C-alpha cells in the first residue's frame, strides 16, 4: 500500500485514494454481523441489574394516582420539558409528566460517567439560554451542567409537582368512547389524557454485547450509563476514581462514552484494557471556558440563540449564511468550501474534504500515540458520516500510559465473558471489573424501546401498524393513534444539535394540541393520504443516502450494516432540522391544518 502520510493540503493522489478505499472495504467486511441490530442483548431477565437506577431515591412510596389531564408527557429529558414549556406558553397547564428516573434530565440523568461532556456547542445545545439567563461555563459543557440546566427549566415551569418520578408507563391505550388515552403505570396509576406527548428519547435503553457469559462473570460489572461510583470511587465532577487503584478494569467499546471516560480510568491507577471492535475517529476538542465579555458581546441581542442555532444548522447542511458562528469540528471544514473558486459541485468537494479529514484524523493518531502497533489499531477506516465523529484531547494520550492497553479484536469483538474476565481470540484477559460502554438500543421497535404497549383505535398496536417500518405525518402523528404526538428523529429530521430538533417538535406539538382544543375537536390524526405522502417524501430523501450507508462499516446509523431499500423507513436520515422547522412553520402559518382529520369516528368527522 502506498504511504498514506500525505499532507492535508496536498491533494491525495489517485493511488493513495484507491488504497484507502480498498482498506475501508476490507475493514468493513471484517465487521459484518449477520444478526445486524439483533446482535445485542437487552438488559432484561438475568441481565436486568445492568439497567437498574443507581441514582434512584431510596424510598418512593406514594399513593396511586387516578386522574384526568389534558396532556400526559412521557419522559422528563429535554423533549418532555420543552414540550411542557411550549404547552404552557400556549396556555395549556393541565399536564402530567412521568419518568422512570428520579429526577429531570433524560439521557443526562442516566449518563454520569466520568468525563461526560456534550460534543455540541453549549451556546446552541442548551435551550432557552435567553429565558433562563444561564451562561454556559465553556464552549462544551459537562453532563452535570446540562442536567442542572434541564432542572432549572423544569423549576422555572414548576413541573416538579406535576411529575411522577420512578414511574414507568407500561401501556397507553386509546379509548374511543371517551376520546382519551388511558395510561397505566408500574405503580398502579391510571392517567386519562386528551393528548399524549411521547418524548422517550433515543439513548436510554441499555444494550449489551450479544455474547455468552455476561451473567457468569465473578467480578464486578456495570454499563457506562449506570456508572458505579461506589465501586470506582470519585464522582462525575471529576474527583479521581480512587477505589480502582491496583484493579484490572476492562472497558468494552470505543464509542463516545469510552473516549470520554478512558482518561479518567487511566488516571485512577487501575490497569485498564480497552476492548475495541471498531476504532472511532477522534479529532481535536479545543474546548475553552466562556469569556463573559465575549459572551455578552453577542448574547445581549434578543433572538441571538436561535440565530446561532439556525446558523449551525445551515452551515452543517451545506448552506452559506456568510458566517460560521459555531466554527468547530462539525462545521468549519464545510464552511471553508464556500468562497473557493472550484468548479466541481459542492457535494463532490465536500466528499473530498471529508475523505482528507479522515486521513488527517488518522495522522493525528500517529502524532500522539507512541507505540506504532497501538497507533495503527486506533485508526478509523470508514468514511466520515458513517459513524458519529468524536472530539477529545485526552483519549489518545491515555494510550501512552503504561497502565492502558488496547485489546484490538480486529473487528471481531469479544467472543465471550468467562468467570474471570473477557475472552478474545481464545485469550482470556483476567479482570476485576468490566464496564460495558456498548451503547443503547437505537433501531428496534418503538414500543420495545419505550417498554410500553401503545394501543390505538380498534385495538391496533403501534408495533403492528409499524411492522414494516414507521408510518407518520411530519414524523409525529400516525393514523389510528389519535392525539398521540411522538418526538422522534424518524421520518423527519436529525441533527448533531438534538435539542434543536426537540424544541421544534415541542413547538409543533403545542400548536396541534391548542388548535384541536380551540376548535372543540375530540381527536386529531392524519388522513391516510397525508401520511402516505409524507412517508413517500421522506423515503425519497432517505434513498439518496442508501448507497453511502450501505458502504459504511456497521453501526447504529446504518442498521448495523443492514440498511436497505426495505428498511429505509426506519433509517436515521431525513431532512435537516432547519428544513423541517421551516416546513412545519409554514404549515402552521397556513392555518388550515392540512392533512389532518378531526373527530374521526366521533360522529362529526372533519377532513381538512
Ligand atoms: P456507541 O453505541 O456509540 O458505542 C458502542 C461501542 O460498543 C462501539 O464501539 C461498539 O463497537 C462496541 N461494541 C458493541 N458490541 C461489541 C462487542 N461484541 N465487542 C466489542 N465491542 C462492542 O455507545 P456510546 O455509549 O459510546 O454512545 C451512545 C450514543 O451517545 C452515541 O450516539 C454517542 O454519539 C452519544 N454520545 C454522545 C456524547 C457527546 O455528545 N459527547 C457523549 C456520549 C455519548 P462497534 O463500533 O464495532 O459497533
Automatic annotation (TrEMBL):
The keyword Methyltransferase does not apply. Pfam families: FMO-like. Keywords: FAD, Flavoprotein, Monooxygenase, NADP, Oxidoreductase. It comes from the Eukaryota. Its cofactor is FAD. Transmembrane segments: none annotated. Belongs to the FAD-binding monooxygenase family. This is FAD/NAD(P)-binding domain-containing protein. It comes from Aspergillus cavernicola.
Amino acid at each position: 500500500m502506498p504511504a498514506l502520510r500525505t499532507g492535508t493540503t496536498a491533494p491525495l493522489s489517485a493511488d493513495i485514494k484507491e488504497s484507502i478505499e480498498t482498506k475501508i472495504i476490507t475493514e468493513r467486511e471484517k465487521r459484518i454481523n449477520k444478526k445486524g441490530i439483533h446482535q445485542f442483548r437487552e438488559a432484561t431477565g438475568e441481565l436486568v441489574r445492568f439497567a437498574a437506577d443507581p441514582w434512584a431515591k431510596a424510598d418512593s412510596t406514594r399513593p396511586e394516582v387516578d386522574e384526568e389531564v389534558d396532556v400526559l408527557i412521557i419522559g422528563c429529558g429535554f423533549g418532555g420539558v420543552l414540550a411542557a414549556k411550549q404547552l404552557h406558553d400556549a396556555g395549556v397547564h393541565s399536564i402530567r409528566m412521568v419518568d422512570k428516573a428520579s429526577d429531570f434530565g433524560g439521557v443526562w440523568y442516566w449518563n454520569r460517567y466520568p468525563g461526560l461532556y456534550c460534543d455540541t456547542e453549549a451556546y446552541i445545545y442548551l435551550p432557552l439560554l435567553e429565558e433562563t439567563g444561564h451562561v454556559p461555563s465553556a464552549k462544551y459543557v459537562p453532563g452535570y451542567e446540562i442536567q442542572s440546566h434541564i432542572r432549572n427549566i423544569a423549576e422555572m415551569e414548576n413541573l416538579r409537582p406535576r411529575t411522577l418520578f420512578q414511574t414507568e408507563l407500561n401501556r397507553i391505550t386509546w379509548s374511543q368512547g371517551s376520546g382519551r388515552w388511558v395510561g397505566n403505570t408500574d405503580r398502579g396509576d391510571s392517567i386519562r389524557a386528551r393528548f399524549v406527548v411521547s418524548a422517550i428519547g433515543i439513548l436510554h435503553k441499555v444494550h449489551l454485547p450479544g455474547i455468552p457469559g455476561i451473567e457468569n462473570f465473578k467480578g464486578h460489572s456495570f454499563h457506562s450509563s449506570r456508572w458505579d461510583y461506589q465501586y470506582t470511587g470519585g464522582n462525575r465532577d471529576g474527583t479521581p476514581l480512587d477505589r480502582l487503584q491496583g484493579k484490572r478494569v476492562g472497558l468494552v467499546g470505543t464509542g463516545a462514552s469510552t473516549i470520554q471516560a478512558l482518561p479518567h480510568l487511566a488516571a485512577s491507577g487501575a490497569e485498564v484494557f480497552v476492548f475495541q471492535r471498531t476504532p472511532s475517529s477522534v479529532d481535536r476538542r479545543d474546548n475553552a471556558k466562556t469569556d463573559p465579555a465575549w459572551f455578552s458581546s453577542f448574547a445581549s441581542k434578543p433572538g441571538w440563540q436561535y440565530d446561532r442555532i439556525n446558523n449551525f444548522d445551515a452551515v452543517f447542511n451545506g448552506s452559506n449564511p456568510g458566517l460560521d458562528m459555531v466554527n468547530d469540528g462539525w462545521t468549519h471544514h464545510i464552511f471553508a468550501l464556500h468562497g473557493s473558486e472550484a468548479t466541481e459541485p459542492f457535494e463532490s468537494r465536500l466528499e473530498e474534504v471529508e475523505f482528507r479529514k479522515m486521513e488527517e484524523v488518522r495522522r493525528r493518531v500517529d502524532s500522539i500515540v507512541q507505540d506504532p502497533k497501538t497507533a495503527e489499531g486506533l485508526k478509523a477506516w470508514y468514511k466520515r458520516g458513517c459513524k458519529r465523529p468524536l472530539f477529545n484531547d485526552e483519549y489518545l494520550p491515555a494510550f501512552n500510559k503504561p497502565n492502558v492497553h488496547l485489546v484490538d479484536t480486529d473487528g471481531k469483538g469479544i467472543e465471550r465473558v468467562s468467570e474471570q474476565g473477557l475472552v478474545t481470540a481464545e485469550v482470556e484477559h483476567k479482570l476485576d471489573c468490566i464496564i460495558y460502554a456498548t451503547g443503547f438500543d437505537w433501531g428496534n421497535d418503538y414500543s420495545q424501546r419505550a417498554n410500553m404497549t401503545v394501543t390505538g383505535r380498534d385495538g391496533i398496536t403501534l408495533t403492528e401498524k409499524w411492522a414494516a417500518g414507521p408510518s407518520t405525518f411530519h414524523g409525529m402523528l400516525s393514523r389510528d393513534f389519535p392525539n398521540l404526538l411522538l418526538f422522534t428523529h424518524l421520518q423527519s429530521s436529525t441533527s448533531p444539535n438534538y435539542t434543536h430538533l426537540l424544541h421544534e417538535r415541542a413547538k409543533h406539538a403545542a400548536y396541534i394540541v391548542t388548535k384541536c382544543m380551540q376548535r372543540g375537536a375530540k381527536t386529531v390524526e392524519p388522513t391516510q393520504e397525508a401520511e402516505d405522502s409524507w412517508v413517500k417524501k421522506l423515503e425519497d430523501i432517505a434513498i439518496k443516502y442508501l448507497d453511502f450507508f450501505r458502504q459504511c462499516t456497521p453501526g447504529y446509523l446504518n442498521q448495523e450494516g443492514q440498511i436497505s431499500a426495505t428498511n429505509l423507513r426506519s433509517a436515521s436520515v431525513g431532512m435537516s432540522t432547519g428544513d423541517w422547522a421551516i416546513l412545519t412553520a409554514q404549515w402552521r402559518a397556513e392555518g388550515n391544518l392540512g392533512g389532518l382529520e378531526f373527530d374521526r369516528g366521533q360522529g362529526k368527522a372533519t377532513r381538512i
